[in-house]
């Protein structure tokens, strides 16, 4: 089960790095932290899973989207 | 067989099917809806595992994930909505 989840995480990480659109990468990062929450949960570390759920799912996504709203891409178009 | 274990298997299978949409989804909106579906299914999965292991602290993880996941999804949805309005 843990090996399966780690393989899924590998696929999601490659997707997050190679995504063409910025928001798709942010969404892949959110899914990555979701899967790692489940991993910590299954490995009987619920306190680590709690922190990962709070920071990874909520705050990181919020900060990334906030940065995307306040920046422009290299070609000058508003994202 | 324990019905909770059967439910855990069903939720795992549907979560894997929903993750396919997040990975393959051609548009960003597809990925966004897929992430929302995966988040709610994983929430149910966390509660079911907590019931299966009979540990109450595991329920707190599900609670915190629900609150902060909602904030994250709200931020993404507002961003996409504002971008569509400006086009």
From TrEMBL, chain A:
It is found in: Cell membrane. Keywords: Cell membrane, Membrane, Transmembrane, Transmembrane helix. This is Hydrogenase. Residues 10-72 form the MrpA C-terminal/MbhD domain. One of its GO terms (cellular component) is plasma membrane. InterPro entries: MrpA_C/MbhD. It comes from Alkalispirochaeta sphaeroplastigenens. It is a multi-pass membrane protein. The chain crosses the membrane at residues 26-43, 50-68. Its main location: membrane.
């Amino acid at each position: 089960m843990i090996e399966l989840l780690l393989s899924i995480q590998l696929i999601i990480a490659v997707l997050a790095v190679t995504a063409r659109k910025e928001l798709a990468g942010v969404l892949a990062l959110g899914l990555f932290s979701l899967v790692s929450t489940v991993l910590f949960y299954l490995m009987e570390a619920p306190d680590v899973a709690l922190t990962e759920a709070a920071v990874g799912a909520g705050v990181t996504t919020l900060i990334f989207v906030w940065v995307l709203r306040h920046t422009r891409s290299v070609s000058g178009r508003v994202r | 067989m324990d019905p909770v274990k059967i439910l855990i298997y069903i939720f795992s299978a549907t979560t894997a099917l929903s993750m396919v949409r997040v990975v393959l989804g051609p548009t960003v909106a597809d990925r966004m809806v897929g992430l929302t579906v995966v988040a709610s299914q994983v929430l149910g999965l966390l509660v079911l595992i907590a019931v299966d292991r009979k540990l109450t602290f595991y329920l707190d993880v599900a609670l915190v994930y629900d609150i902060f996941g909602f904030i994250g999804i709200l931020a993404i949805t507002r961003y996409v909505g504002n971008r569509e309005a400006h086009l």
